[in-house]
Design a protein that fits this description.
2 copies of one chain form a homodimer.
Chain A: H1 2-7, H2 11-17, H3 20-38, H4 45-55, H5 62-73, H6 78-99, E1 109-110, E2 113-114, H7 116-120, H8 122-143, H9 149-163, H10 168-177, H11 186-212, H12 216-243, H13 246-249, H14 255-258, H15 264-268, H16 270-286, H17 296-307
Antiparallel strand pairs in A: 1-2
Helix pairs in contact in A: 3-6, 4-8, 5-6, 5-11, 6-8, 6-11, 9-11, 10-11, 11-12, 12-16, 16-17
């Protein structure tokens, strides 16, 4: 560790030279290759095709990349975290497939492509989601190597919690209940987002560090980092729904407004929303101070969240 | 172990005195109490209500009972297997909730009650299934005590496999593809049932023994036992769909015929189907011989499958 620090230049200089695009692109290639290998095409092909269609439909792969980054940051290896990273993307994809269904958000496009049920039918889309969710846990339990079994169990329990009624599913329920109610409270809006998107993001970040065997206080720092970027991510999402074009988003723009959904901009206005997002990103980055220059990827990812345009 | 064997009477006598109804009733009470505790009602209540509605809607609890039985049979305790037993019922319930959806089997009744989506709406029903599936894995990983972590991981991997595209989901896909095709082959019909219902049943039986630390050859015997009763169970299900009344089934009877579904009776006729089911049950029981009188619950459950009328 010390020798690595020594050959690096001081933090300030590193920050200015760290190439996030190259970092993300490199990791993205690794994650996509691992996902491609993780879901082979076998009988009955239709369900594997449907799963692969959505899992390999592009996207930033931010969740798996965050998991890999914290595992490396806290002394683990990419190999230790790759099965969990893949599982996180499977779970995220499951939530998108089910969220797009006619009985839910009824979306026809996702990442610029037809949604799963528009291609394979609702029945297969429901099953593809179920298949991905089950496979995610099987994949972590069966494929993780070089990590004590207790840590792997901790990761599985944390992920299950993040995606179930105590997390993502619970957030979606409150989101559904809040539809057509543009006057919901900030508390409810925060509940929706800390659960619907925040819980899984937090898991990505913390699970990487659990696999590496991080002490509790590092897990707490990383958890706070993740909660802050998670909320910032959602605020920026809300802002982009108003300001970005459909082409840039790769999905229907202006949906929140149309659905009379409460959003951060609708509660705070655009300018204040942007200020809050920036503040959250600064708070997130402050949590990383004790990790030193090794935390550059996470620092840069936090910045990236507020600077992105899709 | 020896002392327990010694206070038991010889196998033949035990078989004739073993009271399966009392055994099942006792276990059922324990499983229902554990399930009730496992899913407390908390905010957002609607999703927990929906999950509880279907999980606590009765049913024979055969899956968790099989898991508990094999764990005890192979030297483990009820406590070691109870979280997995509950998880198995959560997963089974998830599959029923999603299977009943309009986009799938479109069933209004299940176990004599309105199906989940008829009460809570399709969106909540989809999410309740997702929530149960995720929680099942969280519950095993977080609640199992007194079992080495490696075995718990093995159980999670096996269960994930049984419910995903390689198991239940894959079986459902082929089942959907076979709808309206009464002329599918026996091979396809077997694929559907060994995957749609067989894989999870096999997991129930084998996971109990994995938790107890059974040697590989015992796991294989129990696996064959489970595969045989799984297929017998399905054949009897097909027979009952023709011969039983809606009242006894607690769900719409005659659905297979209506849907022009291939079934064992449609391929073999009723009489041959009954013979095959009996033969499978005998083969299942033969696998238990080496376990001696301790295997009475599993012997009796195998018999129960062919003798049931709902």
């Amino acid at each position: 560790m010390v020798s690595i620090k020594n050959i690096h230049s001081p933090q300030q200089e590193e920050e200015s030279t760290f190439d996030l695009s190259a970092y993300l692109a490199g990791r993205q290639v690794q994650v996509e290759a691992a996902l491609d290998r993780a879901i082979p095409l076998t009988y009955p092909e239709k369900i594997y095709e449907a799963m692969r269609y959505s899992v390999l439909a592009g996207g930033k792969r931010l969740r798996p990349i965050l998991c890999l980054a914290t595992c490396e940051l806290t002394g683990g290896t990419l190999e230790m975290a790759m099965p969990t990273a893949c599982a996180l993307e499977m779970i995220h994809t499951m939530s998108l497939i089910h969220d797009d269904l006619p009985a839910m958000d009824n979306d026809d496009y996702r990442r610029g492509k037809l949604t799963n049920h528009k291609v394979y039918g609702e029945d297969i889309a429901i099953l593809a989601g179920d298949g991905l969710l089950a496979y995610a846990f099987e994949f972590i339990a069966g494929q993780t190597q070089g990590v004590p079994a207790e840590r792997v169990l901790q990761v599985i329990a944390k992920l299950g919690n993040a995606v179930g009624a105590a997390g993502l599913v619970g957030g979606q329920v409150v989101d559904l209940e809040s539809e057509g109610k543009p006057d919901i409270s900030l508390e409810t809006l925060n509940f929706i987002h800390t659960h619907k998107t925040g819980a899984l993001l937090e898991s990505c970040v913390v699970c990487g560090a659990i696999l590496a065997g991080s002490p509790a206080e590092d897990l707490q720092r990383l958890s706070r980092y993740a909660q802050n970027i998670g909320l910032a991510f959602q605020i920026v999402d809300d802002i982009l729904d108003i300001t970005a074009t459909q082409e840039a988003l790769g999905k229907t723009a202006g949906k929140d407004l149309q659905a009379q959904k409460a959003t951060y901009p609708s509660l705070w206005g655009l300018e204040e929303s942007e200020r809050q997002a920036r503040q959250l990103v600064e708070a997130a980055k402050a949590e990383l101070a004790s990790f030193g220059p090794k935390a550059q990827p996470l620092q840069a990812i936090a910045d990236f969240i507020t600077n992105r345009n899709h």
